[in-house]
Write a structure and sequence with these properties.
Helix 3 packs across helix 4. The protein is globular and about 50 Å long. Strands 3-2-1-4-5-7-6 form a seven-stranded mixed β-sheet, sandwiched between helices. It has one domain: Rossmann fold, CATH 3.40.50.150. The protein is of the alpha/beta class. Keywords: Cytoplasm, Methyltransferase, rRNA processing, S-adenosyl-L-methionine, Transferase. It holds the Pfam family GidB. Its EC number is 2.1.1.-. Belongs to the methyltransferase superfamily. RNA methyltransferase RsmG family.
Length: 243
């Protein structure tokens, strides 16, 4: 671990009042090294420069604390849908070790990468699952079992809600990480959220230190059990978003 990496990460996490132990910073640095190494042979991320990874992947992932202030204290069960290279799930696990995390991705190569990160960082109570959200969301072991479902995946909010809401237990929340202006997208997703037994809880917009783009956390509460109709068959939510 370099002093530059440590200083940059600590400085940027000050905006969220997150304090890390040296052992956690070492885990973040190892994660960065594994990410860059694997990215040479497979497409995990277009962002590989150290400071950009810190800001746009690590710190952005931990911005969830703006929407769920108590996340540092509670042993929440969280599922990260379309996790890709592990964002936001792995940074959340490193910073808040008491969390119980499921990482889900539809590409098996990415799941192999995630398993290597979990092993090399010696992370506990975290698993990587190879599946599509539409399939896993119908499995009894995963359906309506989580306090929080989170996603940084790039999809419209109607589609993401159908992917993520089936995993959330009543009283829990789906939180979508979004960039830029989202008013129009939010308005068009309103009926889909209702159909999926959700209601809008909060919309938190902010700008990360070291990044220009506006970020938004859309927090949706699960108010009842979801209809057995959802999620629809694999591929349908993306092609025909609920309206």
């Amino acid at each position: 671990m370099t002093a530059e990496f440590k200083d940059r990460l600590n400085q940027e996490l000050n905006q969220f009042s997150i304090k890390l132990e040296d052992s956690q910073i070492i885990q973040f640095y190892k994660y960065y090294e594994i990410l860059v190494e694997w990215n040479k042979v497979m497409n995990l991320t277009a962002i590989t420069e150290q400071n950009e990874v810190i800001t746009k992947h690590f710190v952005d992932s931990l911005a969830l604390i703006k929407s769920v202030e108590e996340i540092s204290l509670n042993p929440y069960r969280i599922i990260d849908i379309g996790t890709g290279a592990g964002f936001p799930g792995i940074p959340l696990k490193i910073a808040f070790p008491q969390l119980k995390i499921t990482l889900m991705d539809s590409l098996n190569k990415r799941v192999k990468f995630l398993n290597e990160v979990i092993e090399k960082l010696d992370l506990k109570e975290i698993q990587a699952v190879h599946s599509r959200a539409e399939d896993l969301g119908r499995e009894k072991e995963y359906r309506e079992k989580y306090d929080l479902s989170v996603s940084r995946a790039v999809a419209n909010l109607s589609t993401l809600s159908e992917y993520c809401m089936p995993f959330v237990k009543p009283g829990g929340f789906f939180i979508s990480y979004k960039s830029g202006k989202i008013e129009e997208e939010l308005a068009s997703a309103k009926h889909a959220i209702f159909l999926l037994s959700g209601k809008l809880s909060s919309v938190e917009s902010f700008t990360l230190d070291g990044a220009d783009a506006e970020r938004t956390l859309v927090k949706i509460e699960k108010v009842n059990e979801i209809s057995k109709k959802y999620p629809r068959k694999a591929g349908v939510p993306a092609k025909e978003p609920l309206k």
